[in-house]
Amino acid sequence: MIEIQGNNILLSTLKTSLLLHVNEIGKVTADYYGSRLLSLDEAPALIRKYPYNQGDSITYKDENPALCLDHMKLISSTLGKGDYFMPSLILESSKGTLFDFLFESAVALSPTILEKLPSPHGAQEELVITLLEKAMQIRLELHYQLFDDSDVIACYTKIINESEEEVTIRKAASLQLPLVNHEMEVWSTYGNWTGELNIDKKPLTFGRTVIESLCGSSSNRHNPFFLLKNKDASYTQGEVYGFNLMYSSNFEHSIEMDSFQDVRVQLGISSTGFAMKLQPHENFETPFAVMNFSFEGINGMSSDMHRFVNEHVILLPFRGKDRPIAYNNWEATGFSFNATKLRSLMKKAAKLGTELFVLDDAWFSTRNDDKHGLGDWRENTKKTGGIANLAKEAKKLGMKFGIWMEPEMVNDDTPVYRDHPDWVIKDLFHQPSRGRNQFVLNLGLKEVQDFVFQSVSDTLKSGEISYLKWDYNRNITDYDNRNGIFFYQYITGLYSVLRRLTEAFPDVLFENCASGGNRFDLGMLSFFPQSWLSDDTDSYQRTLIQEGALLGYPLSVSSNHVAAKTSNQMLRLTSLDTKFDTACFGVLGYELDLGDLNSLDIKVIQSQIQYYKEHRHILQFGTVYQDTTYFDHDEKMMEATDGKTAIVAHYNKIQKPNPKESHLQVFGLQEDALYTYTTRQESIAIQKFGNLINYTTPFHVNPNGTLISILGKYIDMKSEVDQGVASGKTFAHLGPVLSQEWSGVGYDDKVRLMSDFGGRLYTVVLKTNTEA
Ligand code: DGJ
User: Fold this and answer.
1) In angstroms, rounded to a whole number, what is the distance separating the alpha carbons of residues 413 and 499?
2) How far apart are CA 162 and CA 22, in angstroms?
3) What was the pLDDT predicted at 559?
């Protein structure tokens, strides 16, 4: 709801309000952002008071010496008039560098969309505040879109050059939100290949905290999502602000606290090397930034952000739509396979119950390693037996068929590289550097955009293909940024290709992949409904990655695969069930050599898939609750629920001697209703028990010998099963007591053996009236 009354403007979503105020000198401030206000009548109580100028601050206008910009909660700021925060806007023109914008109007209108950048859809209302710099003839529009169902406000800024001079934009933040420090903490994520999305927590201190990427992608170094919270807020309670940017290239977010403990949060395109020149009467629109406030802890903020992405970012054909369970051949075969191997994997994958066969890298051209073939998308029929045939075979087996591409890249043994050396990103003087032996095509060029569109279209038409994994395995170097907008042109070029492709192939499910989570952001999610978060399929590492992702992104966008027991990346051995305990939170897939499975493994996977299919919608679209950050705790709980059913995982980092009593705490249930709970029984390898096996056998068995490994293919131990009934209230309080943990003596079905890096799943279901 937008209410404009006198100098006050109140923007309210279902549970939050943002109060804007036009002060007596025509500057616009945001004096309050928090829980929803009852009435605009509360405004005077919340607006900052200025009785005296503070110390050595600069007086903006002699008529009112109390007013200085440095101390105002400005929603947009520039250099040169006494505001010493980092400005949200830096402009230059031949007339000068001082720009002083003043309020012109505030109007509510129907939601607009950006011309070149992705926009959220389904906003209820939009407010536009227009500011004018009279002398320089520049207008500034600050757009605020309201999303009631997710309590999100999405903002962008438009700069309109109404002068007859060229104006250069050096910096244009999408959002500036002023706050006051209440012992705040900043949580953001950092990472690298196979170690993406680690949660970093730090107290907000004086000066600037900057979260940014200069990689040419939003990058796995620092994701554009971050949160600010009250020091005492936890996952389950307290005040939390969440922020994100709908953009996939270089970004710059900062949280600056000045000596008065005034805080300004800024999100936007990176200003490093940025210089957008506006000719007379041209304009520039920034990407959308989004913000949320929740007083229900990190879980509250996250579930708002999840709803926002599911409802307002994901494209319509996939909005709320269950995603298929994939089998992908990458970790099984790498670059080396033939048609027989693929067919055999496909048959086995179908038998297990997977629904989509994905042929990964190396199906084309001369690609038998990572040095060749990118950019030459002619299929290598010798290796595949024909894409169309494979797709047909998948169909016969009741599966869909999908394929991998890395459309923005080239190797130098391809016709496209030879014929169009100028399409590769490079400057005038230097030899471009390789990353994974490849170069990047300049998507800023229209010819390249057409080439990429054509390559992907042709591939998608080469058979019945319903899924495409879009990879991007290196970051950008060697660019010629003399015009100051190289990265902006690259990313808007990419968006225009993605727009054309998703319009031409609306039913194809695209999976965003960039060596894992290198371009995991709201911009890419606007076109691609799901994302490969990381090449790390180790269950422990993956739990860390998924908990980082879930802070700002929903389950439905995170594609997670169960891979071989010994992780390719960490060489850590965990059971298939442990891997499932993590991978099932999101879009499940499998990625191991199915030829290596024994009959027990097959049964284990079949039962996982059956379980996942029963609870798929909750595991992909449920509300998420977490209790701690696994990185700095030994145990962790993760839950997905629709209020009637909850799937709860317990993760255990290190096996402890005589662990304390464990409880099954569950959130988001109806307090006064009864629910049943059951452990999803896991398969535990007999080898796990080492020499203890000899306590039960009539003859000596070498725990490392051949006999045990043969037996282990057919016999396993079953985990404990806890079962019972409790009310939603009891679950939320502490929850039922679980079986006693393994403490070194005795093992039977009453003992809960979690192991190092182990897990367990619990199914909690509302008792129906007839049962009650
Ligand atoms: C990196 C991806 O993240 C992997 O899943 C796989 O597709 C390889 N690229 C293929 O080269």
Assistant:
1) 30
2) 23
3) 97
Using most ligand atoms within 8 A of CB, pick from 330, 337, 437 the residue to mutate for ligand 1: 330
> What CA–CA distance (Å, rounded) separates 284 from 173?
12
514 CA distance to ligand 1 middle (Å): 8
Distance from the alpha carbon of residue 471 to the mean position of ligand 1, in angstroms = 7
- Structural contact between residues 33 and 18, judged by C-beta atoms closer than 8 angstroms: yes
Q: Give the type of residue at 509.
A: L
Does residue 349 sit in helix, strand or coil?
helix
Which atom of ligand 1 lies closest to the CA of 532? 3
| Helix/strand/coil percent split, the chain, to 5 | 25, 35, 45
Distance CA 330, CA 361 (A): 7
Q: What is the pLDDT of residue 771?
A: 54
Q: What is the distance of C-alpha 201 from the center of its chain?
A: 18
Neighbours of 63 (CB within 10 A): 9
Query: Among all chains, which residue has been given the structure tokens 């933040």?
Result: 173
Torsion over CA: 562, 565, 568, 570 (sign): positive
Residues 352/349/595/609 CA torsion (nearest 10 deg): -30
Distance in Å, CA 183 to ligand 1 centroid: 42
CB 68 within 8 A of CB 54: yes
Does residue 471 have an active-site annotation?
A: yes
Q: Could you tell me the pTM of the whole model?
A: 0.97
- Nearest residue (CA) to ligand 1, atom 2: 515
- Collapsed DSSP state (helix, strand, coil) of residue 759: strand
d(CA 602, CA 107): 62
Angle, nearest 10°, between helix axes 387-396 and 339-352? 20
The CA-atom distances, in angstroms, between 58 and each of 65, 257, 503, 524 are 9, 19, 54, 44
Residue closest by Cα to atom 9 of ligand 1: 515
How far is Cα 719 from Cα 604, in angstroms, rounded to an integer? Answer: 13
Regions of the chain short of the pLDDT cut 70: 769-772
DSSP strand pairing (509-513 vs 530-532) = parallel
Closest atom of ligand 1 to 591 CA is: 5
**What's the per-residue H, E or C state across 369-393?**
CCCCCCCCCCECHHHHCCHHHHHHH
Which of these, 762, 546, 538, 544, lies nearest to 662 by C-alpha position?
762
Q: What one-character-per-residue DSSP string does 478-546 give?
A: S---TTS-HHHHHHHHHHHHHHHHHHHSTT-EEEEEBTBBTT-SHHHHTT-SEEE-BS---HHHHHHHH
Q: Write the CB contacts of 590 (distance below 8 Å, at least 6 apart in sequence).
A: 325, 326, 327, 328, 349, 352, 354, 561, 562, 563, 605
Q: Is 468 exposed, middle or buried (0-12, 13-18, 19+ CB in 10 A)?
A: buried
Strands (E), 36-192: 89-93, 102-109, 125-133, 138-147, 152-161, 167-180, 184-192
Q: What is the pLDDT of residue 695?
A: 87
- Length of the chain, please? 772
Q: Say how many C-beta atoms besides its own lie within 10 A of residue 611's C-beta.
A: 18
What pLDDT score does 514 carry? 86
β-bridge partners, 34: 17
Q: Packing angle between helix 576-583 and helix 599-621, nearest 10 degrees?
A: 10
Q: Which of the residues 83, 151, 361, 471 is marked catalytic? A: 471
CA pair distance 300, 549, nearest whole angstrom = 15
SS3 323: coil
Ligand 1 atom closest to the CA of 330, numbered from 1: 6
Q: Is 535 a catalytic residue?
A: yes
- A 10 A CB-CB count for 726 gives 20
